[in-house]
Write a structure and sequence with these properties.
This protein is of the alpha+beta class and 276 residues long. The protein is built from 6 helices and 17 strands. A hairpin with a 6-residue loop joins strand 9 and strand 10. Bound molecules: magnesium ion (MG) (2 copies). The site of one magnesium ion has 5 residues, from loops. One magnesium ion (MG) binds next to loops.
Length: 276
Amino acid sequence: MALRRSIYKTPAQLRAMVEPGLITARALAAVRELIAPGITTLELDAEASRIITAAGAKSNFQMVRGYRHTICTSVDEQVVHGIPGDRVLRAGDILSVDAGAEYQGWNGDSAFTIVLPDPSRPEVVAAREELSRVTEGSLWAGIAALATARRLNEVGAAIQDYVDAQGEYGILADYVGHGIGRKMHESPSVFNYRVSDPGPEVRPGLVLAIEPMVVAGDPATFIEEDDWTVSTVDGSAGSHWEHSVAVHDGGIWVLTAPDGGAAGLAAFGIEPQPIG
Ligand code: MG
Ligand code: MG
């Protein structure tokens, strides 16, 4: 019988998760630089692969059974798990990019959304940028809640409260965040909405990938014929933001943000503390 691994990491294990987080951040930053009309999502995938490999790390997405790419690229009504391919990005597209790196046996996982400028459709672009802003804001609200939470379900409540306060948006219910460590996907599940189960205690050693998935319309989704891509039924646009976050003795630290999350958390009065 296999021993059940604790969801709480040791201080040394938390330190080991700093580098995979930073490599993941670098890969996403490099991809972001390339995003422009005319590039294909497969070209973005190649860039992420190049950065992760050059760092001596591996793409942990390629370790997910049946998945062959380094990133997920979800465009317009696709919310998550879009597969890179020959799709050419166009002005006005809303694109979410999700990536992860495994380095020396530890994992990082992060995602961002971007809207390509389109002067001919200012209302569409503004609405999509607002969707992304709301989703990113809800991520930071969830991370900020983690800094003071006693139980994990306070994170989902903070995410939902933030989104609900912004207007008529939908939060995907069937896809959630997760613990992260030796594996990219570990216990516990991190819900992006209120749940009555308090979940595990929030204390040093907890490392979570928090990842709200928010849409501009109805949150009902379906899986496309490629067996991966999650798209909205009503065709409304989706956004996905994600960070891997560690709770440690000194506070919290966002592993997949080069500044530890300082910029994103400032609005919530939380100052991240480096892992000692
Ligand atoms: Mg991810
Ligand atoms: Mg994740």
